[in-house]
UniProtKB/TrEMBL annotation:
Keyword Methyltransferase applies: no
Protein name, UniProt field: FMN dependent NADH:quinone oxidoreductase
Catalytic activity: N,N-dimethyl-1,4-phenylenediamine + anthranilate + 2 NAD(+) = 2-(4-dimethylaminophenyl)diazenylbenzoate + 2 NADH + 2 H(+); 2 a quinone + NADH + H(+) = 2 a 1,4-benzosemiquinone + NAD(+)
Stored HAMAP family: Azoreductase_type1
Record SUPFAM superfamilies: Flavoproteins
E.C. no: 1.6.5.-, 1.7.1.17
Cofactor notes: Binds 1 FMN per subunit.
Oligomer status and interactors: Homodimer.
Species of provenance: Spiroplasma clarkii
Residue span, Flavodoxin-like fold domain: 3-190
Keywords: Flavoprotein, FMN, NAD, Oxidoreductase
Function of the protein: Also exhibits azoreductase activity. Catalyzes the reductive cleavage of the azo bond in aromatic azo compounds to the corresponding amines.
Amino acid sequence: MAKVLVITGTVSPIEKSYSIALTKSFVKAYIASHPDDELIELDLNTAPMASKTLTRTNQTEYWNEQDAMEYINQLKEVQKVIISSPMNNFNVSGLIKNYLDHILLANQTFSYKYSKKGDAIGLLDHLKVQILTTQGAPFGWYPFGDHTAFLKGTWEFVGAKVCEPILFAGTKVAPIMQMSPDEAVATIADKITKAAKDF
Ligand SMILES: Cc1cc2nc3c(=O)[nH]c(=O)nc-3n(C[C@H](O)[C@H](O)[C@H](O)COP(=O)(O)O)c2cc1C
């Protein structure tokens, strides 16, 4: 029985959120094919650490027990992570960025100690990760902003095996903008079901 951490990081109202609809659809399909697994939900809106930005004044206490170690330990105790993020200003949401800033801690989730020059060693190599992303524009409109690739590279940096991300792009353009999040996500139901089964 695997423990699966489901991280969501949108600031949109739940019922209007495409990334939440995508996550719910993936989780539903996942449970159907992995009925014995335990799912742990982490909505970053409810985690105070995800609202804390690293600054000069909080640097010394930023990676404290409650804000950082608790979440790093959580990652060490689960086998899989499903993480969803919308694109906000060409990147992941601030909630997701603050979460990553807390868990990307040297000698806890990665290490330079025993590596060849310049290469880091990921310490979360037990993890399998599924990335679920959304963005208002079709893919490629902003070549300088690829939050999906950023997330993939970041999880690979800590040693995780990252499955092919699912990006739901173009939520702000027709025809998707005329659909509810559930209707929109239903258009890629087969892709979601297959990815969830294989995860
Ligand atoms: C503050 C904010 C910034 C956004 N920035 C971008 C952006 O840079 N590029 C883009 O394509 N869409 C952008 N969007 C649109 C969202 O990515 C899009 O609506 C997405 O579906 C939101 O996912 P959600 O419904 O889960 O919040 C932005 C939305 C918000 C609220």
